[in-house]
Structures are given as C-alpha cells and as structure tokens.
TrEMBL record:
UniProt keyword annotation of Ribosomal protein present: no
Phylogenetic lineage: Bacteria, Pseudomonadati, Bacteroidota, Flavobacteriia, Flavobacteriales
Protein name: GTP cyclohydrolase 1 type 2 homolog
A Pfam family hit: DUF34_NIF3
Record key words, sorted: Metal-binding
Stated family: Belongs to the GTP cyclohydrolase I type 2/NIF3 family.
Amino acid sequence: MLIKEIIQHLEEFAPLNYAEDFDNVGLLVGDAETEATGALITLDTLEEVVDEAIAKNCNLVISFHPIIFSGLKKLNGKNYVERTVIKAIQHNIAIYAIHTALDNQHKGVNDMIAEKLNLINRKILIPRKKSIKKLTTFVPNKDAETLRIALFEAGAGSIGNYDNCSFNVQGLGSFKPNDEADPTIGEKGQLHFEEETQIGVTFPVHLESKILQTLFKNHPYEEVAHEITTLENAHQHLGMGMIGELEQGISEEDFLKSVKETFNAGVVRHSDLLGRTIKKVAVLGGSGSFAIENAKRAGADIYITADLKYHDFYKAEKQIILADIGHYESEQFTKNLLCSFLSKKIRNFALILADTNTNPIKYI
C-alpha cells in the first residue's frame, strides 16, 4: 500500500477543503508515492514521536496537529520543529496532519468529545457557511433521468438528512451548430429546438471536480451549458463545535467532577457556578474562546473547551458556565478516532496508536 492510498481514505473522511484558512494540513513531509510500512497515529508530531515511529517500523506519522504551522526559513535544528522535521527526513518518515479538516467534520473531534460525555441530540455548534454549491444544467428530456442518477451517485443532491434532491423544470431550448461543431442532436447551420429539462442539484464544495466530471461524462451534448453557484446556506453537518443534551440533568458540581474524571484533566478552570441543573452542553476541542457567544446563543448551560484567557471568563456574564479542561485533554481521543476509522478501511496493515504523551503542560 502506498502512502497516498492511506491519505485518500483520510481525505474522504475529512476533506482538506474544510480546513480553516490559517491552517497547514495535508502531507507536510515525505513522498506520497512511497510504499507504507506502517502508520503511527498521534496528536502531535515531536522528535520522540518520530523515534517511536522508527522503533515500530512506521514510515508514516498521522498527526492531528501540524508540526509545520508557519513557514520554515531554515532547517538548522535550533528548535523542536526543525529537529523533528530533520529527523523525519533523515529516516524517510512522512508526516501527515489533518487538524481543522477533522475539527469541521460532523463525526470528527467534537463528536468524539460529545460521545465521551454521552450527549444526545447532537448538532454542529457553528455550521460552516459557503460549503454548499449548486449545479444548474440543461439536458434533453430523454437523457434527464440518466444524468440525474449519475449526479446523485457522484454525491450531488444531498441536503442535511435527505439525498437524491433535485429541482427540475421542462422547457424549450434552442441552438444552431456552426460549421466546426459536431452536434449530437441537430444539423450544422440549422436552428434546432429541443425539449429540455433544467436540472438543479446541490453538492458539498469538495466534490466539485467529481461532479463536473460526472456531468461531462453523462451529458449527451458536445457543449454542456452549466452554471455553478455558491449558496449562502450553512452546512448543518460541517463546522466547528457541537451542542447536545444529557439524558438527565445533573448538578453543576457533579457534572464538572465527571468531566474532570472523563478527560483525566489535571485541573478544570471554570467561571462562576449558577446554581442550575446542567442539561444542554456545548463543546469545542482545542482553543475555543471564539465560540463563547455561539454557545450562549444556543442556550447551552455549560461550554467545555480549552485555552480560555483570564478575561474570557468574564464573557460568561451569569448566562453560562465556561469550563477549560486543557487543550491536550480536549483532543486526546482524536488519535483513537482516526485509528478506528482507518482500521475499518484498511485491513492487514499496521496502524499503531502512539504511546508518546505529547502534552507539554504538567500539573502538580
């Protein structure tokens, strides 16, 4: 198996199109055409992780966080990033990072947190905008069904919990082929009228290339009239964070103790307790201060995230409890998620969870 084949599975699960603009995802080090000997799955790629990959004969490290985040101008080994990259290159180890592409996945990082908290009725906290496109095309009536089915099979026509969705309008199209045309229908130099169906289907942005290939392959015309537009609709199955409910309400103190235990957190920093029952819970793995207002608007009783600063806690304003469980703690189960997914896709291949604890924060 080549490294690129493993990457293909990862990107079907969490397309890189959905990573945040500031992020650095994908194959960061190595050659995708190399045959894979094994994959070590980790939260962070550090020198110790590369050493573990060497010891376990894994020439691919699948990392949640990217070791290369901003540009590298030198490789002199003067900091942990440079030393890690140098060691990986010296030992022909590829490094792949998935980060916010998985953050934005419906069954990704935040769903894993929600699963650990036994939340039900889960929804994306901040649905992603401009992630849905619409294809409009015109096809002879007799070919409309064939084209529709092909587009559906390519992934078009899915909206939330519905699939095979399209809008169809029949009308009369006209065209006149010139002398250089090779018309499927009609004659050169003759104005032709054809009973046509206008087909409109939506599709997620990462499928655009596949949808266009399908359109051109299954459309009978030499010249395929089509239009693609980006919709303003938010994608309900893509985006940051998640909100759900506990099956039964629980006191604030008991819930926070349970969270601390579940995530093995050295400490849970939180805003003022409000003397209420916890029922509705919002979560966002990693640095989540930007979503405080979203959690409040969603009516969450508590918002669990990480990396909150001193003044962030004031934003609770007696409306919600803000709880910081630690960056590593909030994302620690991500490597299990990736390993579980790949194990179902790839049989008889070494997929190994890294033993190295990459949490840089220690507690007394």
